[in-house]
Amino acid sequence: MSVQVPRKWRPTLGSIVFVVLATVMALPLVGLFFFRLYENQLVRQTEAELIAQSAVIAAAFAEEVERQPDPATLLGAAVPSDPARSSERYRPIEPVLDLAGDDILGRRPDPRPPSAPPEPALMDIGGRLGPILARTQVTTLAGFRLLDASGRVIAGREDIGLSLSHVSEVEEALLGRYSAVLRTRVSDEPPPPLYSLSRGTGIRIFVAMPVLVQDRVAGVVYASRTPSNVIKHIYGERGKFALAALAVIGATLAIGLLFWRTITRPINALARRAALVGRGPNEFVPLEHHGTREIATLSQSFVDMTARLKERSDYIETFAAHVSHEMKTPLTAIQGAAELLREPAGSANTMSASQRDRFIDNIIADTNRLTTMLHRLRDLARAENMEVGGSTLLMAVVARAKSAYPALEITVASRVERPIAISAENLLIVLSHLADNAACHGARHLHISADVDAGQLQLIVRDDGSGISEGNRDRVFEPFFTTRRESGGTGMGLEIVRAILRVHGGTIELLASDDGAAFRIGLPFA
User: Fold this and answer.
1) Cβ pair 152, 159 in contact under 8 A
2) Percentage of the chain with pLDDT > 70?
3) Domains of the chain and any CATH numbers
4) Of 138, 344, 355, 429, whose CB count within 10 A is highest?
């Protein structure tokens, strides 16, 4: 009963390769959605730059306020001192914005008219620092505004004199606390299409840093800037990225074609040829293109397997012909004798008792011959299908052969003590058949020599019997060929020996010999 592969849906090799290549090809596009981490770093970097720039401007602003004749009149809310940090020389401000976690506020509220105009002294300070802010913006691309302690603009762009005290980040700074927020960016130009993939593209960072003089708020440096954006860079280099995408697609198609030509197509061709061989003893035609070394090895294995199957089929056909021929003769004799014994009474009465006994003896002899032949056929079937395994030493098996054939002097000349890849029982069967053949042909001495050749154990088994005639040398391994048919020989002994050696990876051949018979046996080491 043949084993059937369970039928269920399985993906083809081509579909798996397609999915893998499509996934690899899509990885660069999927990677665009992971740019937020990189953009968050850009936001932090931009905030850090604004902190540094605002700190310099705040220091200049504070210096200007301290130079005034009565700076206390220009100061605002008092800032509680922190005893834990009062002794520290450095008080760095770290970036706090997080593109992934912070809310993005709406556009910055428009400035409002103040309840009272800024102090003239502060307007003078703003007038002196305004050109510095403008020149700084040319290089840093950041927008700066200086606010007094009430949130009124004293330096910047067109908002001078107006109030920003109602803006949330400015409110925090007027209380002496640093504040930074993300707001929606307002631009006169439409964003490129790829901007929709980025959350950080349409935002602007606003930083409000308090200016402290005598532990009171003297004003606020209000700075803003749009962070750098990786998508904008990609859009600017869209031509190069298009070429890169085409290169990725081309490489993917080339890999798919290479995989199809070197793996998928040869495997499908092997499957078709194997199916043809399975329908009958067809010759396996090698592939024109094997693709890879492994597939070429697999193809060669199919060729060898097909050759062995055809050889096996031819062997079974020839063996069946020999069996039918060998069984036909005794069966014909038994049938003839039985028919003579079944003759009518008048005819049978003419057969003497000795003749009747001779016919009965012939029937029994032919029956015994058939029984012996069937036993040999069973032994041959076992030899060809025996389990391969185990190992043994030559000398241990020879000792058992000596005990089994005490009338035959068995000697060994061997320097090999390595175990060979055959069980002791199977090697004993091989040596027993050779010893039995030697004894039946008048041998009194059996000599075994062992050596190593080509990584195998080589045994020369030589006897001093009557030997094999030149005319019979080519037929000694032919099934059912025997010169001892009258004494009960079946001609299956050497075939059983060859079958046992074949399943163990061994060989046997007849050697030329002037005295007796000589065989060479090759067996692999364990």
Assistant:
1) no
2) 74
3) 26-80+92-236 (3.30.450.20), 388-524 (3.30.565.10)
4) 429
